[in-house]
Design brief:
- By secondary structure, the chain is an alpha/beta fold.
- Helix content is 35%, strand content 14%.
- It contains 5 helices and 15 strands.
- The two termini are 43 Å apart.
């Protein structure tokens, strides 16, 4: 039957796309079969369950969409409301503790790590959850709250709390989140190099420290005393393994 063939074809294409997303962004899939990914990767399982629940919800089926969502949460530790809108190519790495609210909207090729929340604020009706653009990466434990918009290619640092709109191709760190540009580095794409994210507060402290040393030098020259031995602030970039997990 043409309808049945089309449904089977779409199902296999959907499975293939989710497996490809996992392989493209999780090094742990290097020596793992596609069947193992389907059976043991909770992020892939949660998205497949969401697709089923969302389709049932759009078809007007009562109760069953939420039953599917509930079982998925019990099995995977990931909670996705059936009414959320999620584009193709999403990948949830590890996934435990991820929450995606009812009016959340997620674009294409988005990567979420464990503990991410796309939540609401207050009890208002209507749009109350974040809208996430394409090619966005959201680090472990990040909380995006309210009807904010995250622009294309943005990166949200681990444990960042975001309550305001995020410009495209920018990086947000801290609590509350501070949008900053990454000079000379490629922002777009699901890399997890959180350890080299810019820190505006640290930059401000370094600038103040350098200014104080210069003032102390001028005072010493005017008074004829010895210049104080002040340790130079460490300007070298952080090195080491990424703290993003995965």
């Amino acid at each position: 039957m043409p309808v049945a063939d089309d449904l089977i074809s779409r199902t296999f294409r959907g499975l293939s796309s989710h497996i490809s997303a996992a392989r493209g962004r999780d090094p742990a899939t290097a020596n793992v079969s596609s069947l193992e990914i389907l059976l043991t990767w909770p992020g892939v399982q949660a998205i497949l369950a969401y697709r089923l629940a969302n389709r049932l919800r759009r078809s007007g089926v009562p109760l069953l969409p939420f039953a599917v969502s509930y079982l998925s949460r019990v099995i995977t530790g990931i909670e996705i409301h059936p009414d959320a809108e999620i584009g193709p190519g999403i990948f949830i790495d590890h996934g435990s503790g991820v929450v995606i609210g009812e009016t959340a909207e997620i674009g294409e090729n988005v990567t979420l790590y464990q503990g991410v929340t796309l939540g609401g604020t207050g009890f208002q009706s209507g749009k109350r959850h974040p809208t996430v653009g394409d090619n966005v990466t959201i680090g472990s434990g990040a909380k995006l709250l309210g009807p904010i918009t995250v622009g294309h290619g943005a990166k949200i640092g681990a444990n960042t709390v975001v309550v305001e709109d995020v410009p495209p191709c920018s990086t947000v760190v801290g609590n509350p989140g501070h949008p900053v540009r990454v000079d000379g580095r490629k922002v777009e794409g699901p890399d997890a190099d959180w350890i080299h994210l810019p820190d505006p507060l640290q930059d401000a402290v370094k600038s103040l420290s350098a200014r104080i040393k210069e003032l102390e030098k001028q005072v010493a020259e005017l008074s004829g005393s010895e210049q104080p031995d002040v340790e130079e602030p460490d300007g070298e970039p952080k090195k080491g393994r990424s703290s993003a997990g995965g």
